[in-house]
């Protein structure tokens, strides 16, 4: 019935499997909670542009210093995009850390989550 395994040993294997599932579920819940709270803010090198992104990489805030009026729109646009990329990069690093701390960076769940954010951000973050 148990392929040479005692009933006690089989029950212990089932209990260990249940504990493992419960632990993974707790880790996944912690990961979801922590990632949903992530934000990242970056400031341009000249300090004139500040951008904040949410956990999904969406821009939630842009602050332009009044001094940006004295430069070309092209310069401001370029600085803005550079700052968005910096905020996104910071978010990506935070997600990698949270993933490693909860489910593990080398787990299937961890790899899928990191790959998903990388795809949403549209950048080759490492």
From TrEMBL:
Q: Name one GO molecular function term.
A: DNA binding
Tell me which InterPro entries the record gives: YbaB-like_sf, YbaB/EbfC
Extract the SUPFAM superfamilies matched here. Answer: YbaB-like
Would you say which domain of life the source belongs to?
A: Bacteria
Q: What is this protein called?
A: YbaB/EbfC DNA-binding family protein
Native organism: Paractinoplanes ferrugineus
């Amino acid at each position: 019935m148990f392929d040479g395994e005692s009933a006690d040993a089989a029950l212990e294997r089932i209990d260990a499997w249940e504990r493992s599932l419960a632990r993974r579920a707790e880790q996944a819940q912690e990961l979801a909670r922590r990632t949903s709270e992530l934000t990242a803010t970056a400031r341009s090198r000249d300090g004139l542009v500040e951008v904040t992104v949410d956990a999904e990489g969406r821009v939630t805030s842009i602050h332009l210093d009044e001094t940006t009026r004295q430069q070309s729109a092209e310069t401001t646009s370029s600085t803005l995009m550079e700052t968005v990329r910096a905020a996104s990069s910071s978010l990506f690093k935070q997600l990698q850390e949270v993933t490693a701390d909860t489910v593990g960076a080398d787990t299937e769940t961890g790899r899928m989550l990191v790959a998903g954010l990388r795809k949403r951000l549209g950048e080759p973050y490492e």
